Structure formats: C-alpha cells, structure tokens
Amino acid sequence: MRHLITPICAAVALALATPAAHAQNAALDARIAQLATQEEAKVIAWRRDIHEHPELGNQETRTAALVAAHLKKLGLEVQTGVGRTGVVGILRGGKPGPVVALRADMDGLPLTEANDLPFASKVKTTYLGQPVGVMHACGHDTHVAMLMGAAEVLSQVKADLPGTVKFIFQPAEEGSLPGVEGGAKLMVKEGVLDKPKVDAVFGVHINSKTEVGNLNYRPGGEMASSDRFTIKVHGKGAHGAYPWNSVDPVVTAAQIIMGLQTIVSREVKLIDDAAVVTVGTINGGVRYNVIPPDVEMSGTIRALNPEVQKQIWASIRRIATNIAESAGATAEVSIDPYVPVTINSPALTAQMLPTLQAVAGNANVHEIKAVTGAEDFSFYQEKVPGLFLFVGGMGKGQDPATAADHHTAGFRIDESGLTLGVKTLATLAADYLTANPAKQK
Ligand SMILES: [Zn+2]
Ligand SMILES: [Zn+2]
Predict the structure, then answer these.
(1) pLDDT the model gives residue 18
(2) Interval between CA 264 and ligand 2 midpoint (Å)
(3) Closest ligand to the CA of 141
(4) How confident is the model at residue 19 (pLDDT cuts 50, 70, 90)?
(5) Any idea where the Peptidase M20 dimerisation domain is (predicted)?
C-alpha cells in the first residue's frame, strides 16, 4: 500500500481532509496538560515501585493487581485476567462518541540489573533452567505508570469526553515461553478490541536514546515484522576422507547461507523498505572427519511491509530447496510468523499529528526512519487503525551513542520524560474522540 502513494504526500492530503482535532479541543487539552503535570510525582512513584518489582511475561500478577486497584479507585469498569494477566479499564465519557484504546505493556526481562539506583531490581528467577535476575530493561514499567497517570487525568475530565476510553494493560510483549500463547495476540483473540468495539488504538514506547521532551513517529511501516525460520538440510553422511560417497549437507548449508544473502541485496526493493534475513544458528556434525547426514539452521526475518515479508518467505523457500536440489540433497523449510509489521495508519497519523505538535511543540516532533526491531502492538493495528510513538527517555544533553540500549543491564530512563508521555496519551484520546463524531454509536 505504501508503494501507491508516498506517506508524506498521503499525510498532507489527509490532513487537509480531516478536521484538526487539536484546534477543536484547545480548552479541554489545556486542562489535560495541567492535570498531567500535577500527576508527575505520582507517576514517578508508581514507576519506581514497578521497576523495583519487575515480573516476567504472563506472570505480571503484582503489577496487574496494582493497576486494577488504581482503575477501580478511579471508578472505571475493570476486567482482569484478560490474556492471562492483562487488565482492561473502561472509562465512559459524559457524551456519546467513538471508542479509543490506549495500551501499555507490563512485562520485564530475564536480565540482572546493573544500575546503582535506590529502586533497582533485586528480583531473581529461573528462566529456561538458568538462574537470572528480572529487570524492566525495556521501560515497560514507565509505560504502565504513564498509562495509570493518563487514566487518572482522563477520569477527571470524564464529563467532557465525547466517547469511551479503553485502557489496555498488556502482558508479555517481549514474547512468551516457547509454545505458550500470550501478549497482544492473545488479548485480541480474547476480544479486547470488542465490547465496546474499539475504533482506534494508541500506544507509546519510551526510548533510552531519544532526549526527554521529544516524540518520534513514522506513518506506515514503523517497526518490522519478526518471523523465525528453520532450514533442515538432508544429505548423506560419509567418511570425511571419502566425500564422493556423501551428499555433503555442510557444504550445501554453506551455499544456502550465501544464497540467502542475495534476498535482501538483490531481490528486495531497498529504496522502498529495508529488510533483514539473519541466520543465527547452524548445527551439524559431531566429529571433524565425519560428514554428517543433516545440518539444521535457524534465523530471523524482518520486514517493514507485509508484501515484502511474504516475498522473503517465498525467496527463502525457493533458494533453500533449489540449492539443496542442485547438490542432490533436500531442504525442509519452516517459517513461523511471530509478530506482524507495526503499521501506523497514514490517515490516523495525519489526523493526530497536530495533537502531537501541540503537546510536545513543533520542533520536538520528528518523523523517523523505520526500526528493524519488532513490537506486538501490531496485532491491534491488524484489527483497527493505530498509532505507535516513541517518547524521549534520555537525559537532556546526554549522548545517544553512550546511553545504554534497551534490553541491556545498564538500561536507564530519565523520569523527567514521563509527563510528556502522560500528556500525549491523554490528549490523543481526547482529541480523537472529539475529531471523529461520525463514528458515534
Ligand atoms: Zn523490549
Ligand atoms: Zn518494549
């Protein structure tokens, strides 16, 4: 779809066609901004508490209880146990209108925290048989705290909201254990976008390498799909000294790995969308002078456009099976789709851009290049138009090159960035409800 019209042209055209939500809502948005600022100390306290008590995916019971108690105190309708440990809060505004969802993920990672912070995690667990710490090393603690803040802000302006806000606190964004369902996919399957039916969804991710005060977004494919592939090469084993008696799967596997490099370099139209094919494991053989009968490899596929994703799947199958055939071997290819492309609706992005600019200031809102990391927010966007943003979490004046990356033991967030996240979530919800009265039911 992004091949038909460039996102920037589409954004301009749609911005002219849809009402500028923010202009209609200036008085309400000013109140939201003020209330969000007043929330700062509470949001930071929640964040520190959650940071100190991180929980792995599908085990977020303490976090979920904290969230559910907060939402109940605000007078929301609360559902618990959605998608295992997920919590959903429904806030019905004083006027009729559409339904908008705001989403935060709640899970930590199996990583031992290396930060010297008073609220650093000391939690320990066993993950896949290995003893390890648990840490909010992706900033999902800040997401929970910011959405709790947004819920408190919006519940204070409830009477003026023309529609309904659904707060989705999601487990297991980082993935579930092998063979276990979870995350956004399971919440969607269990109907989180129904009853009442959600018209649009917004979510934010804190970023440790973006200065506080900034918002980053991209219309269309913003974050990559993530799929796992496995290739089993079946040949014929032989003595290492008599290779003519073998169909050597090691050499064939090497040819396949080199062949896979031509998918991105020769077949994907890179001027439109980046893509990645990485072989991460290769296993075969037990002894230096024995040619084994089989070799198995596995890897990851990243794409920023679902058509390119399907093209890469087909290319992997074609290259692996035909190279194997040329060697007299066979290749068994299996592809496990994991997370779809995070696609920000160009129309919704264009409609909400004035809101982002009003909340953060024009100079602090940036259209960014696509990211080859993946995010399961994409499962909501498969069903309803959605917009996923990055909120600055790096201290002012810090060098992004030296700021610790997500998923590392030294990952840190500057908490002065959290109020912008609260304002952004709450204002997006209020402005969306005001700007889309046609969807009233
Ligand atoms: Zn992460
Ligand atoms: Zn994350």
Answers:
(1) 55
(2) 26
(3) 2
(4) low
(5) 228-324
